[in-house]
Write a structure and sequence with these properties.
CATH class of the domain at 2-172: Alpha Beta
CATH architecture of the domain at 2-172: 2-Layer Sandwich
Radius of gyration: 30 Å
Structural class: alpha/beta
Strand order of the largest sheet: 8-12-11-10-9-13-14-7-23
Strand content: 15-25%
Bound molecules: phosphoenolpyruvate, magnesium ion
Oligomer: single chain
CATH topology of the domain at 2-172: Beta-Lactamase
């Protein structure tokens, strides 16, 4: 059989295994069979003891499972792990590293091939095959085993994490303070109860949930099955005239699958055992799907598609039913999802929501930015977190370090309770700064503006003493709708923002969708969305959207005259010229309607490398320039801001980014155009020091960060900041820049604003 098909089947089978031991058993038996060899074994490295344990084998004595244990550099297994490379030996027992365990009975096996199992740079264990004959495994065999191991690493990591979450750590010990690592999404810490949200009608995403009222779940399930039967019958009748009898028979096959004796019977057994209907349905359907897909007969393997389709249909009815039952939210809800979306943030009442956790995404995803705006601790990209198993569990979220803890001990809770108290104290102290100006000790004024999107941002901004809005993300109201808002709806919404801040300026950015900002009603499918149809590229291609939006903005500003317009994602001069032409046209049309508005200042966001090198040319055309450091960092470093795999490479303080920011400031000054910055860097106290020193005298940030930044800037001199900047610009790695800043903040008395460190005692 061809290798990829074989691998796919092994991975599928392993994925549907219920726990780690079962998954490893499947791996050793299938790999041994596929490679026609005599022994296949998996040794996993216990992170607590740093020892390998034989976890599963086919071919060695079964009694040695769980007994054979080697330290991390012992034996051939240890050698594979230390070198992190395959080891292919013709006659293993003669190798100086060979270590003999009599209980395995492995002395008769001469040929040995071991490959490391590595997931995200972490060594999980070693996969070994052996044979009696004295021979070298050939190149194809070696390549196959390396491929199997690379594919299985993620599956093993995931089942290991799931095992830990069910309360057991490696080799069956009781788990405590288990830490899942992610990226710091929004500062703050919280202790609460997990509530897992998942996208509707996606069978794979349905989490497990233990329930007590099994009768109600059985009833909901019966009703869903009856509704699906009814749908299938109706479609069958409608099509009966157009189908041949053998095609019509397919509908009977479908109906047959819904008989109690088949799938529903198994689902009901799982419900009776305490699993909720949706989880039971997922388990049974995916088991069947995996089974059918692993059959080589193409007719039968195609049936997997039918079964999945049936499962989706039943799920849709179950979810419809569930949405009608009023929901109880834990008092301190921690929202957990495989992929958190802005729309999900509205699902839980604000007074019960204490933190957010997303398996996908990273600190610079827009949902993290919203979390910061809502002052909710948030961890993004916790890729090892088995979200589906967390519902109802007690968790600690540490948004400073990007850690999520399950099974917290009393000690760990005490430690975090202390941080929560400290945070409360700091924010009470900061409130006192509200009406004080942001002036450095040597008399330089820095304007602190806010980024908004939600109405709650406006309230918080005002209470934190914001002097204007540097970025109103207009896509936010577009994203929480299910259609494009009308001109009138937009006008009302924009008016609210403009009125709340008048006479202070409000900078409204034209629609910046694409990338990770999706509208459900305007789907865009692209291979490479961050380099694709985004921001101004879309609105120039759809002038009807752009014109309506600008008209709504202008009309909303009537009598207030505090509007500025900002253009996102500009990568060339022509885009600016075209946008200005459209804005001018709308302006004159609005005036012709008899509405008395002034022409608002128009600015361009510098967030694409080409714009960095054309700041002067672009700035000449407009009234001001605003730097979007979030995207600028992603495009300069070629690091997707949303991808947790490369999150460790995303550094807004990378020396290359600092050089670019400095150049922009000098060029904007050279042509005499006002300059501001509205990326997240402006809200980082260390970042704000560097930006002020570079000449950015308007910093726009999340309202939650504003008091901290004000407090730091009021306590330093610009001279001192310039000295810190000079030292940072002389370094060549982001880590050193971060250390210089942390040290400087500590010296200036702001230890609390450098991230406090958690105390992870074990990690997954
Ligand atoms: C930016 O890119 O820095 C920015 C402010 O815009 P957004 O985060 O909305 O892409
Ligand atoms: Mg941007």
């Amino acid at each position: 059989m061809e290798m990829l098909g074989l691998l796919r089947r092994i991975v599928q089978e392993v994925n549907s295994a219920s726990h780690l031991d079962a998954a490893l058993r499947v791996i050793v038996s299938r790999v041994r069979e596929a490679m026609s060899t005599e022994v296949c074994s998996v040794y996993l490295l216990d992170p607590d003891t740093n020892r390998y344990l034989l976890m599963a084998t086919e071919g060695l004595n079964q009694e040695s499972i769980g007994r054979v244990s080697l330290n991390h550099s012992e034996g051939l297994v240890g050698l594979v792990g230390v070198r992190e490379e395959p080891l292919n030996l013709e006659d293993a027992p003669t190798h100086p590293h060979f270590r003999f365990f009599p209980e395995t009975g492995e002395d008769k096996f001469r040929a040995f091939l071991g490959v490391p199992i590595i997931h995200h740079r972490k060594l999980l264990g070693v996969l070994v095959i052996q044979q009696q004959a004295r021979r070298l495994f050939d190149e194809r065999e070696e390549a196959f085993l390396v491929t199997v191991s690379a594919q299985l690493a993620a599956v093993i990591a995931h089942s290991e994490a799931s095992g830990i979450v069910s309360g057991l750590s490696f080799a069956g010990q009781q788990a405590r303070d288990v830490c899942f690592k992610g990226a710091a999404g929004a500062n703050g810490v919280a202790i609460g109860e997990a509530l897992v949200l998942f996208p509707p009608a996606d069978l794979n995403a349905v989490p497990d949930k233990i329930i007590e009222n099994t009768v109600a779940e059985q009833q909901a399930f019966d009703a869903a099955i009856a509704a699906v039967r009814q749908d299938i019958r109706q479609v069958g009748e409608k099509l009966s005239g157009q189908l041949r009898p053998e095609e019509r028979a397919l509908f009977d096959v479908y109906l047959g699958m819904l008989d109690d004796a088949a799938i529903p019977g198994e689902v009901k057994a799982k419900i009776a055992a305490g699993q909720w209907a949706q989880g039971a349905l997922r388990q049974v359907i995916l088991e069947y799907v995996g089974h059918f897909e692993s059959i080589s007969d193409s007719y039968l393997s195609e049936r997997a598609v039918d079964i999945r389709d049936l499962g989706q249909r039943v799920l849709a009815y179950l979810q419809q039913h569930a949405s009608q039952v009023p929901r109880e939210f834990p008092e301190r809800t921690i929202l957990v999802s495989d992929e958190l979306t802005p729309a999900m943030l509205g699902a839980v009442p604000r007074d019960r929501l204490v933190a957010l956790v997303s398996v996908r995404g990273s600190s610079n995803s827009h949902v993290a930015i919203l979390a910061r705006a809502m002052n909710l601790p948030c961890v993004m990209g916790a890729i090892e977190l088995p979200a589906a198993r967390l519902d109802g569990m007690e968790l600690i979220v540490d948004g400073y370090n990007g850690d999520v803890f399950s099974h917290p001990s009393a000690d760990l809770k005490g430690y975090y309770d202390h941080i929560i108290d400290e945070e409360r104290q700091v924010s009470t102290d900061l409130e006192k700064l509200r009406d004080l100006p942001c002036v450095t000790l040597d008399g330089f004024s820095i304007s602190l503006w806010v980024n908004t999107g939600l109405m709650t941002d406006v309230m918080r901004s005002l209470s934190h003493g914001a002097e204007g809005v540097g970025l109103y993300r207009t896509e936010v109201p577009f994203m929480i709708n299910d259609r494009f808002p009308s001109e009138l709806e937009q006008r009302d919404c924009y008016r609210e923002q403009l009125e709340a801040f008048a006479p202070n300026p409000v900078t409204m950015r034209t629609l910046d969708i694409g990338g990770d900002k999706k509208l459900t009603y305007f789907p865009i499918h692209e291979e490479n969305p961050f380099l694709g149809w985004r921001g101004i590229r879309i609105t120039l291609d759809h002038p009807e959207i752009f014109l309506v939006q600008v008209r709504a903005m202008l009309k909303a500003s009537e009598g207030l005259n505090n509007l500025s317009i900002l253009l996102p994602m500009v990568s060339n001069v022509t885009e600016v010229e075209e946008a200005l032409r459209l804005i001018n046209r709308v302006y004159w049309e609005v005036r012709e309607e008899g509405i008395d508005v002034v022409m608002p200042p128009v600015g361009v966001m510098v967030e694409v490398p080409s714009a960095v090198f054309q700041v002067k040319e672009i700035a000449e055309l407009v009234d001001f320039v605003s730097v979007g450091s979030n995207d600028l960092t992603q495009y300069l470093l070629a690091v997707d801001r949303n991808n947790p795999r490369v999150a460790n490479l995303y550094h807004a303080l990378h020396p290359a980014v600092l050089q670019a920011l400095y150049k922009i400031s000098l060029d904007a000054k050279a042509v005499g155009k006002p300059l501001s910055i509205c990326g997240e860097l402006a809200g980082d106290p260390g970042g704000a020091i560097l930006l002020a020193a570079m000449g950015y005298h308007t910093l726009s940030m999340n309202a939650a960060n504003l008091p901290r930044v004000k407090s730091v800037l009021r306590s330093i001199t610009l001279r001192w900041a310039e000295d810190v900047l000079r030292r940072c610009l002389a370094t060549d790695t982001p880590e050193v820049v971060r250390s210089i800043l942390e040290l400087s903040l500590k010296e200036a008395g702001f230890e609390f604003f450098t991230r406090p460190t958690g105390q992870a005692s074990s990690s997954a």
